[in-house]
Amino acid sequence: MKEILDTSLTDAQVDNFITIASAMVDDLDTNTTLTDARLILIEQWLTAHIIASTRERMGKSEKLGDAQITYLGEFGKGLDSTPYGQMAAQLDTSGTLRALGKKKITLKAITSFE
Q: 21, 25, 39, 88: which could form a disulfide with 45 (CB 3.0–4.6 Å)?
């Protein structure tokens, strides 16, 4: 995973994030026909996304005088908030990863108001 994301986190800290990503990928495994090799790739990119969304947020711009940093991505944008999440979503050709956590709705059409 550290080949994807350059991080200062210890291996033990990274392992905690891998555990989270692994649980999410386990949901994919039961709902799709993705290969084991594809699931491993998704887990790696998803781990990088989770780290980049929390502990190692990616800087978009920095300033030295009066120290300022603007972070890349926005909270609430899900997988689209980091390049790592975008790659994880692309690797999941079933679309299941993007659908996790989204509410399902039922829509009924009324043909007449009379």
A: 88
